[in-house]
Structure formats: C-alpha cells, structure tokens
Amino acid sequence: MKGSEEIREGQLIFAKECSACHGVRGKGAGSPSLAMGVVAPDLTGIKQRNGGYFPREFVSRFIMGRLEKEDPFSAMPDFSTVGLRHVYPNGGADGEVLETDFANLLDYLEAIQE
C-alpha cells in the first residue's frame, strides 16, 4: 500500500467510477445498484472476509474482468471491456485505464478496510 497522495487519487477514482453502486464510503448502498434491486458488496470488508489479508491481485483481476464471476449475470461491469469513463490525474485519455491510476484505486480500497 502506498502513501496518502496515492490513496487520495484512488479515492477520486473511486468516487467517479465505483461510488454510484458501492456507495460513497464503499459500504454497498449506491442508488443505481439499489434501483436495479441489487446490493453491491461492502468493499470495506474484503480484508475481513479473507482472514485479515487484502487480496490485491484477486481484487485487481475481478475488477478488470479477468476472473469468472460467481454470478454470470452480475451487475458489476467488466472494466476491461467497457473502459472507465473519466480523465485521471496521471494523464490517461477518456476511457483509458492507466496502471498508476488503477494501482491508486487498489491502494484506496486497501486503505478503507475495516
């Protein structure tokens, strides 16, 4: 996990890309997911659900659609195919995922673990 600047940038990316479904604090109470009748997972409990370990590589692969989802009809988008929608602090073009920005997002997710 990185320092506060990387976590802050990851928080900005989370706010733009993830909070609509996972909620502002990652607790899974975003309006779009609730409107679809789906409760997005609480992302603050990933570490707790994995015996006190944050499975960074697993989370990365899941977000980017590199793992088979338990529910093939999951509302969770495969970001490797739909792209991300915003320009990020590290210079990525619209829809482009930069490795640095993605690492910052993972740093933020690790930082919010309870």
Automatic annotation (TrEMBL):
One of its GO terms (molecular function) is metal ion binding. Keywords: Heme, Iron, Metal-binding, Plasmid. Residues 5-113 form the Cytochrome c domain. It holds the Pfam family Cytochrom_C. InterPro entries: Cyt_c-like_dom, Cyt_c-like_dom_sf. SUPFAM superfamilies: Cytochrome c. This is Cytochrome c.
